Model the fold of this input.
Amino acid sequence: MHPALTEEAALRQEDPAAADLNPPVFDTEAVELADTLSVPTRLTGPEPDARMDDEVSLDLEQALEPILSEAAERQVSSAFDDLSFAVRNEQRRSFDEIAQEIMRPLLQDWLDNNLPTLVERLVREEIERVARGGRR
Done:
């Protein structure tokens, strides 16, 4: 037991006013036990070895290497340059003009495939109606 702690405890018992001003006394066994236990200041894991550092630097070097070949990069760059040129130099068109340009071939294809059979069916129905004697 620490003599300073016992003196402090004795003073507190004698003078109640001093007990309020002094900090509480701790159990000396707990203090001694805490002193004997060593708590690491930081958590330590296994030390990284040099191989791990080499692998990380190798992975980093591979990650920084270009994925595309120079020829592929030139082709991609050229394609984007062509697109940029076309966008900058083409006349601005309205939405109606763009829609007409897109829809015209689609409509023409549909009419080529469906209009003849549609007209034939409607003409046949009209001929049958007239032949039966019904008029509008």
